Amino acid sequence: MEQFTALSVSKENRPVRYLVVDDSVFARRNLARMVESFGGVMAGEAGDGFTAITEYNRTLPDIVLMDITMPQMEGIEAVERIVRQHPDARIVMVSSVGYQENILAALQKGARHFVQKPVRPDVLYEIVRYVLNDDGVLVGSGAGGGQKQGVPS
Amino acid sequence: MRMDLIQPFVSAADSVLGQLLEGPTVVGNPSMEEETYRRKGVAALIGFQGDIEGRIIFDLEPRTACSIAGRLAGSEPPETADDSLVAETLCELANMIIGNAVTLLNDRGFHFRVQPPEVHTDPEGMKSSYDTEAVVMSFDTPAGCVYLNIAMRYNRRRKAEREPALSA
């Protein structure tokens, strides 16, 4: 898989920590490979909304990649509950179902962005960079594809 | 069978398969299925209900299923189609194709819910009927031939029931 300029969290100069939520093992594995190619680490993973909330509280990740259609509790409800407890949570929806109602509902509940499956690594990379940059937590290291951010002194 | 309902599934399959398998797909001529469906190999079934009701069977010959599973996982193809990786890959691929088609249809005003994909192991599928005849589409991909068996009907009554509520 293509390698990207590693993204790291500026304050602590450490890799970005991801929580990946998807009921498909295959999809989680694919996203984990992308996370690795972005220089990130997996803080945790979950196969449904309930587990996502538990895992969020346990791992406090820098960013969440969240599917929408899942058993027991769907992604949009999980977003609402996580953001209620953690208003600064950064959640990117990753779903094959990308119609306007779904996207709007997710954004209204506190999701930061939406990516439609099949996920292109370069698109996801740019979105992760955008979301983390928006909060001023990101620094890009090395040279190459991603735009280099200011390195803290 | 309304082709305007079929077309989003064909477009979605063409696009998703082309992107994931990194090569051109050739869409074959559609054929009508009037008898009970017999699967060709490994299949995932997805049902949906709402303004449109029906089911789609995403069907691959075992060798093609193994080849696609290996390509998408970035590993050697599994030796047999019984490998769990094949079923996982098939379900997620079907999920992506149906999800993309649903997105197109929803933005055109059709509302329905899609059930999670399930691996279809019965040799026979749902029988076609006068209002849910099936169309079989084939997609020639770099990994082999992929079949989409689409049986659906437009649920007029349901849509008519919803419209007054929306305008109220």
Key traits:
heterodimer; A: 153 residues; alpha/beta; Rossmann fold; five-stranded parallel sheet; three-stranded antiparallel sheet; B: 168 residues; alpha+beta; Chemotaxis protein chec; eight-stranded antiparallel sheet; 4 helices; 29% strand; globular
Give a brief rundown of this model.
The complex is a heterodimer of chains A (about 150) and B (about 170). Chain A is an alpha/beta fold and about 150 residues long. Chain A has one domain (about 5-140): 3-Layer(aba) Sandwich (Rossmann fold), CATH 3.40.50.
**Span between N and C termini of chain A?**
32 Å
**Helix fraction of chain B by DSSP (H/I, runs of at least 4):** 25-40%
Q: Give the CA-based shape of chain B.
A: globular
* Gyration radius from CA atoms of chain A, angstroms: 14 Å
Poorly predicted parts of chain A: 142-153
Give average pLDDT of chain B, whole number.
Answer: 83
The arrangement of helices and strands of chain B along the chain is HEEEEHHEEEEH
Domains counted in the coordinates of chain B: how many? Answer: 1
Structure characterization notes:
- With 153 residues, chain A is α/β, with parallel strands linked by helices.
- Chain A is built from five helices and eight strands, in the order E-E-E-H-E-H-E-H-E-H-E-H-E.
- Chain A has one domain: Rossmann fold (3-Layer(aba) Sandwich), CATH 3.40.50.2300.
- Chain A is 39% helix and 21% strand.
- In chain A, the strands form two sheets. Chain A has a five-stranded parallel β-sheet with strand order 4-3-5-6-7, sandwiched between helices. A three-stranded antiparallel β-sheet of chain A has the order 2-1-8, with helices on one face.
- In chain A, helix 4 links the parallel strand 6 and strand 7.
- In chain A, helix 3 packs parallel to helix 4.
- The radius of gyration of chain A is 14 Å and the shape is globular.
- The C terminus of chain A is likely disordered.
- By secondary structure, chain B is an alpha+beta fold.
- In chain B, helix 1 crosses helix 3 and helix 2 packs across helix 3.
- Chain B is globular.
- Classes of the chains: A alpha/beta (153), B alpha+beta (168).
- At the A-B interface, helix 1 of A face helix 1 and helix 3 of B.
